[in-house]
Amino acid sequence: MRFDILTIFPEFFGALPDQGILGHGVVSRALRTGLASAHVHDLRSFTHDRHRTVDDRPFGGGEGMVLKPQPIFECLESLAIAPRPARDGSRETVILLSAQGKPFKQSTARRLAALDRVVLICGRYEGVDERVSQLLCDEELSIGDYVLSGGELAAAIVVDATVRLLPGVLGHADSSRYESFGEGDAQDLEEERKGRASGGGGTDASADVQAPPRSTNASNGLLDYPHYTRPAEFLGVSVPEPLGSGDHQAIRRWRRQAALAKTLANRADLLSGADLTDDDREFLATLGYRRGD
Ligand code: ADE
Q1: 7: Cβ below 6 Å to ligand 1?
Q2: Which atom of ligand 1 approaches the CA of 143 most closely?
Q3: Is the shortest distance between the CB of 151 and ligand 1 below 6 Å?
Q4: Among 75, 105, 251, 252, which residue is least crowded by beta carbons within 10 Å?
Q5: In what order do the strands lie in the sheet containing 55-56?
């Protein structure tokens, strides 16, 4: 898939694919291997005055400067991207990054990862002329409830979160499915439930006990479970016992409960929308959580 990034600070993205904020790790590798491409466009190249002016004073007065629509329009035109109505039904989207946008979430990244082309316009100064959003963009996205000095960091975050979901980018096909906010394993969970309901006698009938627990179940709206590596003890703190036991069912159970505890501690708001089993609710109740809390 292809990303086009429109900015007045092209240096922010460095010399792709090896340098700059996108020049590391899986994103850099995806760019180098051609699974994705990113093209950075300097909005000043689409100005026509001696000072390469990209901003102007706000109508109505007030603080700060506003990014002009014309350089953005001409840049999009040079990329053969038509103003909005003509784009309907295509596999591309034009996004304005701004603090006023809709929240960018994992589900947004999944939707973008299914497209052929994503154009990211980085806002700056006090704002961007509203006609950019109105006439040229399909959507306006914010990465969080805070105001950045520009959309460049936000654009890099959108690229990173999207690229790692592209087929072939992550080493293991499942590595993005079972993490926090991952698509998760509703099916696994359902199978596990059925296993229990059919009188598994405490054993997990659906789990292949020979295989390592493939799923953490730490998705379906929960945060990921905590991870540990060697040493088994660090600064007096030991790795939780079930993780070293080799008992896959015990590991699965510990991870599920740790994910529930972590979610309760850090993002209790997620629990009301999470896919919880009776066991989950019982466990949460031991931590003092009640539905509707
Ligand atoms: N530009 C300024 N603040 C922003 C935010 N929170 N998200 C995306 N772009 C921004």
Answers
A1: no
A2: 7
A3: yes
A4: 105
A5: 55-56, 66-67, 127-128
